[in-house]
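Incident review: delayed structure delivery

Summary: a single-chain prediction request sat in the queue longer than the usual turnaround. Root cause was a stuck worker, restarted by the on-call engineer. No data loss occurred. The affected request and its eventual output are reproduced below so the record is complete for anyone auditing the incident later.

Affected input:
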Amino acid sequence: MPDKRPRKPAKRSAKAGAPRRGSRSARGQPGATRARAAESPAARKRRAVRILEALHELYPEATCALHHGDPWQLLIATILSAQSTDETVNKVTPVLFSRYPSPATLAAAPLAEIEEVIHSTGFFRQKARNVREASRRIAEDFGGTVPDTMEALTSLPGVARKTANVVLGTAFGQNEGVVVDTHVGRLATRLGLAWSAKDGKDAVKIERDLMELIPRADWTFLGHALIWHGRRVCSARKPACAACHLAPDCPSAGTFD
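Output delivered after worker restart:
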């Protein structure tokens, strides 16, 4: 159970210009959403910088959890990770890539065989079609090399902006945006860094708000670090606010009774 005693982090947060904590405690978000409107853009920017600095201290090596050896493997793994877990995908991809080690070989594979390998990731029929067709496009239209632009990547089957951000940031070192998955959406909302988003699932506005607050050089890092923090500390149901190093700058800290 969270510590019921008054927290110093709450006082530090108020002095820093952070919004007041919300009145509803079920998930800490409705009240926090109302409170964020009272925070000035300058105060929010300063708070975002402190959060970013804390994340760098906590997770200096934060990176993508999907195992891969090249951009194509990362692309396929990211497509498979939709509505699945990284752990599940990491069990599937070694088998998949050992059987089909290149875009051309996966493009020529029978759908039934691909479906069998990736079955545990969920939505396996659509994913099988997407990874095979994306591999075909890469083999035929891009000379067997994964393209390194947002426009080209999002033209591939199964690739939307989030997947493209993962590949561009992790495989090519290009900060074109912020990856917003369920962890990032949840934490950005709780931390009061997504003031224009209606909730943690409003990925387009969450990404836009984070890109406005965070220096471009840190966009890829931010996504990875928030994912790590979401898994280790700020879980969906029982966030460990008492142990959270971001609590001094989090308007939702301590509201999850």
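Verification: The first helix runs from residue 8 to 15.
Action items: add queue-age alerting; document worker restart procedure.
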